[in-house]
Amino acid sequence: SEAVALSLGEKLRARRESRGLTQDELARRSGLTQEMISNLERGKHQPRFDTLAKYATGLGMTVTSLLGH
After folding, report:
1. What is the pTM for the complete model shown?
2. What is the chain's Cα-based Rg?
3. What does the DSSP 8-state code read for residue 2?
4. What is the DSSP letter of 30?
């Protein structure tokens, strides 16, 4: 499960960085805290769907496109 979380975190970070956003900027856009975003990207949390939805919304994406290839 940790390997899955890490790969998810890597994907989340790559999506954020591809949009040129810092964790702070994404926090403001998504309603999540910078700490939560950091923990998600480092694989420290298994996010609930609503957390992923907020992250995706902050990036202007759907959850499906966020998690896709």
Report:
1. 0.87
2. 10
3. H
4. H
Q: What is the 3-state secondary structure (H, E, C) of 33-50?
A: CHHHHHHHHCCCCCCCHH
- Residue 67 in 3-state DSSP? helix
Residue 26's closest CA among 52, 64, 65?
52
CA-based nearest residue to 51, from 69, 35, 37, 68:
37
CB count in 10 Å sphere of residue 39:
15
Q: Torsions phi, psi of 60, nearest 5?
A: 75, 35
Q: Give the C-alpha separation, 44 to 61, whole Å.
A: 22
Q: What is the pLDDT of residues 1-55, one digit of tens each?
A: 566 665 899 999 999 999 999 999 999 999 999 999 999 999 888 899 999 999 9
Q: Where do we find the tokens 């499906």? A: 64
